[in-house]
Amino acid sequence: MTKGIQDIIVALSEIVGPAYVTGDDSARFAYTMDASLFGGTDAAVVVRPGTTEEVSRILNFASKKRFPVVTRGGGASIYGQPKGRPGENILIDMTRMNNVLDLNPTSMTVKAQTGIIMGKLQHACKTAGFYIYAPFAPLHIVSLGGWMSGAAGSAGLWRDIIGVTVVLPDGTVVQTGGGPATNHNQKLFYNRNLGGPDLTGLFIGDGGSFGIKTEAVVRITPYPRVLRASIFEFDGLERVLELIERHVGRVDPHPFEPIMVFGPGAMKNFMPEFEVSTAFTVQGMMQGHTEEEIQAKQAVFNRIAEELGGVRTPMLDAMAEAMAASGSEGSDMEMDWLSLFNGLGIAAWLPFTLPREGFLDVYRKLLDWRTERLRDANQRGFKHRATWEFFAPTDASTLIGEIDAFFEPSDDPAVFAYIRDMMADFQDFAHRLGSIDVYNQGIMSNINASFWSDGYAHLFQTIKKALDPQGILNPGLWAGTTRGDKSKCR
Amino acid sequence: MKELNKVRRFIYNCKKCGVCGNKVTAKVPYVCPVRQASPGFEHFYARGKIIIAQGVLEGRFPLSPDLITALYSCTLCGNCTTQCGTTDSDTGEQMVATTKIVEAMRSDVLAEHPEWVPESYRQVLRATQQYDNPWAMPRASREKWYRGLDLIDARREPADIVLFTGCTIPSSPELSERAKKAVMILNRAGIRVGVLGKDEVCCGSVQRKIGDKACADELMRRNIATLNRTGCSKVVTLCAGCYTTLHHEYKAAGTPLSATVCHIVTLLSELLKNKKLTLTRSQHRTIAYHDPCHLGRHAGIFNPPRDILRAIPSITLVERRATREHTICCGAGGGMRLFEGGRLAVAMGEQALAAARQAGAHALVTACPFCETNLAAAAQTSADPLPVFDIVDLVYDALGA
User: Fold this and answer.
1) Which residue range is the domain that position B371 belongs to?
2) How far apart (Å, rounded) are the C-alpha atoms in residues B256 and B250?
3) For chain A, which has fewer Cβ within 10 Å, the N-terminal or C-terminal residue?
4) Domain span at residue A299?
């Protein structure tokens, strides 16, 4: 360990206590991987702060000394962690900041530290009779901060984030949104926009590059007493899209009334009793606070689905019942959708976000791309074991989804390399067709940035430079400014 | 890295998603007791350890003494594997097993760089070579505790049931009382058990967990030979670690143990069910039961101890938030009491006691001398100590002997 590193450790120890700073080889090495195939962060020092003030002091120190800083939450990104400057980074592991600070049932908000994993946060909310609308957050893996920095922004899922406490790269602490920090006379404001620009939104989907979010106030919704699901099979996608159009025309997908579409054969990966079929499976989920309310909702959904030619079977009905039970008031919230796939082999995650209008044409091109790539993989001797297709509306006009493929054997470095290439190539192809993506970390931020318009890129870089003139926070993130140059992304 | 190579499929099957360190549900307040009690960096829980193992296999992480903290800060409790739950979608086989990975790495490091292994562990291995037990207990101690009791010397006379005492129980006068009580309870049910005296050697659990597979295999071979020679049909253990070792490893050995193996809680529960024992006396107590990892999560024995406790008059059994297969290790597993002076082990014990207090328990009961020792050590450091019992003590008291 060099003297420079020792000096950093001494300085950080004074801030967080010596137990929570390390430069040990094995400790640092454990952060070089994450849930992705693109790797974690090569850090010089890892620090685990416990408070906003400690984060502020760390950033103030790093900013003065111009040390690169990279943040990490649950390590759940499927497109990798920010790399910073390998070997020089101060890596801030946020997961010690994992407390619920306040749950306000009257104003229906929860305030928590951002290193908290969503499962712990949802459990605390559920204990009080509430939940947070985050249906696509892997429950037991992703941190609140990581989710806000990564997936929440682009998917438009997080209008329920009311305000954040964020530490700017020079150590300044800012609170956005409503509440006492933004209105001196009224501490009970829980409204994201208090008449000026949406400063909360600035830090959602930023990949953690504008500042480090340390606390957040999030809207909570009373836990529904009744949960019901209907599942239909459709032979073709046109009718499925029509069902979605009629559904979102009638019901805003928020609060939680999701409709999810699974591709042919997708269900068989998890339920062997399912036959391989060419049908698309559509699941409508309904929540309500009374039996009458839920029956009315379900009757409408079923009628529309049947009008469009959807078919129910006893097996689908049984599955719908099981799905409803898994999310019901009495369930233990065990299920984590990302970890469900762990048993299928090494995943080539192929996610997309597309407008609902014109979706079908692009979606078919994406599927064709995958078919071609799987053929290529098989010719090279890489065995793909399963595929998975899923999409769902996140708002009236947007569909989020994925067309993943799973490979084996899992201990062949050549398979890993092939999948890494496949994922990056897919994003390049999908972005050229108009997809953006919701994973604004690791290589994905650079792929996204490489497709920005010049004006958008200019505005982003101007904000970044104003907030982080030394460029210390997550250096290298959002660097893909040459349009279509995917070499920036590797 | 001979042993690590054997478990490489578990390493590469792991998707590094982090469920093993981060899951929280109504029944899982946290997954890893080491992560909870330590500064909590990634290498303190399963994902980090597996990442290091992968780095070692691929030559990206050079072996160094720095590895020791990651390797030995693990209770091998297996809760990470339970909460991960990843099984092959076709075969249903478990795909990730952190305990096997950590044990393999410990074994390789001990074989290749024994000087890196902390002295406290090496001392245990030396004691085993010298005394056939990890605690440097003279062999004669194995025969002291049962003087005057009504039992059979199974080396000389046939005994249908042999009591495998283990090393920890005869190593202290307090714990020896436990063995005496067990014998007297069984006598009350009309059972005379056999013992092996100083021919019993350590089961090998501790040595295997430290990484000395050869030593553990040799101990296993000797015990199997001794037990098979007696012709007994059943071996009863008082220690949860001995139970798992005999039940799983001895039964799978090249020359396997021929007798069936049961833990004392299973036998007592059967005796109560068959009315061979009746429990009549008790103090009023609200208690929680701590499932030893070896007995619960590793062997699925959850109901017998609870059946026993429910059969004791005046006892109210409460459950902690994490119970049965979700139980969080007491802190003594995996040799943690030998790691850094047992500081982390005691901290984990304090967490277990705090969870019992939170559940409204006035005492914590277990069925393993390792758990009991560590929980009692934690209780001693607590400002609000909670009494810790072994289930045999409660049964003995309730018999009105």
Assistant:
1) 278-399
2) 6
3) C
4) 226-326
Taking Cα atoms as reference points, which of B175, B210, B205 lies closest to residue B392? B175
Angstrom CA distances, B389 to A130, A303, B38, B347, stand at: 39, 62, 27, 19
Give yes or no: residues B100 and B170 share one domain: no
Q: Which of residues 64-93 of A touch B (CB under 8 A)?
A: 74-76, 93
Taking CB atoms and an 8 Å cutoff, what residues of chain A touch B43?
26-27, 29-30
- Nearest by CB to A336, which of B9, B19, B43? B19
Is the same domain home to B370 and B335?
Answer: yes
Q: Chain A: nearest CA to B26, how far in angstroms?
A: 6
CB within 8 Å: B43 and A34? no
Q: Would you tell me how many other CB atoms lie within 10 Å of the CB of residue B380?
A: 11
Q: What string of pLDDT tens digits covers the 401 residues of chain B?
A: 899 999 999 999 999 999 999 999 999 999 999 999 999 999 999 999 999 999 999 999 988 899 999 999 999 999 999 999 888 767 778 888 999 999 999 999 999 999 999 999 999 999 999 999 999 999 999 999 999 999 999 999 999 999 999 999 898 888 899 999 999 999 999 999 999 999 999 999 999 999 999 999 999 999 999 999 999 999 999 999 999 999 999 999 999 999 999 999 999 999 999 999 999 987 778 999 999 999 999 999 999 999 999 999 989 999 999 999 999 999 999 999 999 999 999 999 999 999 999 999 999 999 999 999 999 999 999 888 899 999 999 999 999 75
Domain holding A319: CATH number?
3.30.70.3450
Instruction: State how many domains chain A has.
Output: 3
Distances (CA, A) of B235 to A351, B146, B164, B227, B361: 56, 17, 6, 8, 33
Task: Out of B83, B117, B151, pick the residue that ends a domain.
Answer: B117
* Alpha-carbon distances of B357 from B325, B364, B386, B388, rounded to whole Å: 20, 9, 8, 12
Is A22 at the interface with chain B, CB within 8 A? yes
Identify the residue whose tokens are 């609308």.
Answer: A133
Residue numbers in A near B26 (CB within 8 A):
123, 332-333
Per-residue H/E/C for A376-395: HHHHCCCEEEEEEEEEEEEE
Looking at the structure of chain B, the number of domains it has is 3
Tokens, residue A56: 């502020």
A347 inside domain: no
- Domain limit, last residue, from B270, B305, B320: B270
Contacts of B95 in chain A (CB under 8 A): 342-343
- A213 and A309 together in one domain: no
